[in-house]
Each structure stands twice: as structure tokens, then as C-alpha cells.
Amino acid sequence: MTITIYPARRIITMNPSQPEGDCLAVKDGRVLSVGSMEHASAFGDVSVDDRYADKVLMPGFVEGHSHALEGVIWDYVYLGWFDKQSPEGEHWQGLRDVASIQERLAAGLARLAPGAPLIAWGFDPIYFSGARLDKRLLDAVSDEVPIIVMHASLHVMTINSAVIEQADIASKEIDGIVRNAGGECVGELQEMPAMHLVFDRYGIDFFEQASQPGALRQYARAARREGITTITDLLNPLSDDAIDSMRSTTLEPSFPVRLVPALNALGWAPEEGSKQLAKAMTQGHDKLFFGIVKLVTDGAIQNYTARLQWPGYLDVEGNGVWNAPPQTFHDMVLHYHQAGFQLHIHTNGDEAVELMLDALEEALCLWPRPNHRHTLQHVQLIRQDQLYRVKMLEACLNIFANHIYYWGDIHLSRTLGFDRCQRLEPAASASRLGITFGIHCDAPVTPLSPLFTAHCAHRRQTASGTVLGMAEAIDRHVALEAITLGAARTLQLDKRIGSLEPGKWADVAILDDDPLDERIALKDIRVHGTLLGGLPTDA
């Protein structure tokens, strides 16, 4: 087969043995060489494609924690604080006051099919001053048509009186149903057990919808636009239908990314979950990888549902919400570890981190397993002693670095205070200890944009421009490694992707600007396109 050579202005390989190159030579979808034209020509006949001669090439970005919900959530009404861009490139303005939220809901209500609930997402009440917004906000739009609003974190929802009545919320005794001093439901449901009362009543299954072809294609297009060539769906039902849909869709020649879905462990009894995951693994191929398990322990700090150790939250009493009894998570870690699967564990608060480290330590004592790469996800408040335990257990981290921009100001003033904000997203400490780590965006919670995530890890600036914990900032090269090779390592795919070196797939991010040029902020680097297996994805 002919060798295709792509000359470039600069090639950043993320390969320590050969950090830079002159030309990318591709054969059979793999990197053959990044040396000179002469070196590549030694392998045989070459065809030169100079369309990227003035561009900068680097490994395709690996988004190690996001959700295919990004491909379906835009079917619903956006109510977020920050401006966002849909997968089709449509700009949605953020909403900064209650009247604007109600106006957008009313517009959605006018378009609603008769008998359907109005579903919205992206709402973040912590940005609004005064009492926490509740069902009264939605009842002012309608107290007869069911209105369901998912918060930005996807860990909380606000509902109106119609939903409370139709789903019989008031009669239920479930942790996460928020009530006032008089015992009245205020319209806020925290975490999965409480929210499932609404999902089940109206037959809503966002995650199953996100596994369908249209949503997957939308998700992939959004990823490609940001230079991503491998993306996760880190909470997938892995039903038979979802598996079939993901397999057939990713096999399409035009599908522009590789997909790594994770089994939602809380959706299955452990024995059945293991059997389903093993079955799914027989359906994988070069653009679809099964084998990882997702546990969601606690919630989100900005929703007050993350589990925090002392001194707890700065401005409210009480602690967060577990999505299942702690012993359930402990037992699941032991089961899936013994079964040989890789765990990816949502741990926002330091109490959740402690619980899971204890479980991992016991699992590894009972069943030692080299190169397990179990990964703690988010780890926003992980402490130094916990980081040391991660190192000793040879676990990995995936750090929610862009959270500093979106919620750093709130954590400083309301939820955490000054000292704990200095250790938020401690990428520099992870790097110093030699822990394998990536950084991520968690779309649709925050927008897909690995370069912006890298910028946040490098600069550590909040939306207001405040710098939080500069001692935990990482340099540009480390930040770029965290969105390429580091993220690939957390997915156990670094034999195939994450760097441009001979034998690996020729998955490439094509940039208009040089990400190592200190004069250009990483967030301002423009993505021109991608190669997947050496082929332009826009061809």
C-alpha cells in the first residue's frame, strides 16, 4: 500500500524519544514515521499530501470523561448560566436572571406537543443570589404542564407542582427529596434515586437515547470539531439495543472518532453486569472499545451533593448525597476488580475519594493485579495524603480541570472557602508524584474542548479572572500530555493512541496555531481538523 506523507509546519509527537518531527508518514492507517521525507521514503513509494504544510500536527485529543448525552441533550431547552454552542454550531446565550429563564421555558412550552412534559437542562441555581430557586420558578410558567429541569451537573433536577403531584413525590421517603421546614416538597430532587422517580413516571431515559445513531453522530461531530479522535461515553446502559446501535454506528466509514463506553454499574446487579460487559467486549472493533465500568458515588460540589470530609460546606449545614449505600460501592469495587474489569469511579468530594481508596486497597490486597489502572474521576478535592495513596495503589486520576473556570468563584465565596480552593484539581501534585492522570471536560456538564481544559489546568483562572491555587498549575507540555497520552493511559489505550510514534494509529489533531507558543493562550488555539487512521475526517 502506498505511503502517504503529510508535511507540516511542526509535529508535536508526545513521544519522549522523538518529541518532534518533520513529516507524518502513514501506512495502513498507522504512523510509519515522523522523520524527514527521506527517512519515510526508505520504506517504499510515497504520495505527498501537502494540505497541512502550514499547520501544526499533534496526537488526536483523547476525551477521557464525557457523555454521549451531548448528542441528545440539545433536543431540550437550554437554561445555563454560560453561553454554549450546540453540536451543530448554534450559539445559545446564557441566562442571568429568573425572568429570562421563565421566558425561555415559556417559549419551549409554546412548541411542546400536547401531553408531553417540558424538559430543560443546564440550570445552575447556585449562581443566583438569595434563597435557592425551587418549584415556584417553574409554577410561574405553568403549574399544570409537567416541567422538568436538569441542573448543569446532571446530579439534581428542579420540578414543578404538576410533576410533584403526577409522580407522587410527596409520599416517597427517599434521600434526596428536598423539603422545607414544614415537610413540603420544594421541587428539588438530588441524585439518582430521587430523580428516577421522575424518569420512571415519564419514561425518560436520556442515556438510552444517547446510544442511538443520531445522537452518537451528533456527539462525534461535536468531538471532531474540537480535535478529539477518541471519546468516552462514561455512563452507558450497555443494553443489548445500545450495544447494537453503538456497533453499527461506529462501523460507519464516516464516523469520525473512536468510542469508549462504560457500563453504568448501578444499572445492573454485579454478576449480571459482568456478564453483559463480557458479552459487549465481543462486539468491539477498532473504533469501539468495551471493558470499563463506571461507578457514581457522590454528587457535585456546586449542588451541595458531593460528600465532603470535615469541615464540610462553607455556607450550609449537612453533607452531600450518596447514590447508593457506601457498602454497595465497596462491594462493587471488589466484584468488578476480581472479575478483571477496569473501574472508573466518580469521586467529587474527599469523603468519596476516601471510601473508594479503602475499597481499592482491600481489593488489591485480596486479588493483586498489576497494571489495573483503576481510575478515580473528577477528584476535585483530593487531599495530599490521598494522592499518596493513589500512587501507592498504582491507580490513575482523571481531573476535572475546567471546573475551576466554571465554578471556582462559587467555591471560593460559597461552598469551600480559600484554603480548599488552593487544592482544587491538583494536577501539579499528581504530576510531581508520578501518578498517571488525564484531564477532562465532562460534557455536557461543561463544553467539549480539550484545549480549553488544558488552558484551565495551565492558568487556573476562574470566570472572573481570579487565580486559584497557582501551586497546582501545570506547564503547557504536561497539560497537552494530559489530553493525549495521559488520557489514553487511563483508558488502557496507550498502545494504540495518545502519541505519534511508529505502530500507533495515525489519529491526529490538526491545529492552525502552535500550542507550545507561549504567546498564544491554549484556549485560543484553533482546530483545523482531524485525521483518523491517517484519513481526513472531513473527506
What does this protein look like?
- The protein has 539 residues and is α/β, with parallel strands linked by helices.
- The chain folds into three domains: 1-60 and 498-539, Urease, subunit C, domain 1; 73-204, Diaminopimelate Epimerase, Chain A, domain 1, CATH 3.10.310; 210-497, TIM Barrel, CATH 3.20.20.
- It contains 18 helices and 24 strands.
- The strands form four sheets. Strands 1, 2, 3, 4, 5, 22, 23 and 24 form an eight-stranded mixed beta sheet that branches.
- α10 runs parallel beside α11 (350-366) and α11 (350-366) packs parallel to α12 (384-393).
- It is globular, with a radius of gyration of 23 Å.
Labels describing this entry:
539 residues; alpha/beta; Urease, subunit C, domain 1; Diaminopimelate Epimerase, Chain A, domain 1; TIM Barrel; 3 domains; 8-stranded mixed sheet; 8-stranded parallel sheet; 18 helices; 24 strands; 31% helix; 21% strand; globular
CATH overall fold name of the largest domain: TIM Barrel
CATH-wise, what's the superfamily of the largest domain?
Metal-dependent hydrolases
| Strand content range | 15-25%
- The coarse overall form would be globular
Q: Mean pLDDT score, rounded? A: 96
Number of strands: 24
CATH architecture identity of the largest domain: Alpha-Beta Barrel
Please report the first level of CATH classification, the CATH class of the largest domain.
Alpha Beta
Our measurement of the CA-to-CA distance between the termini, rounded to an integer number of angstroms, reads 19 Å
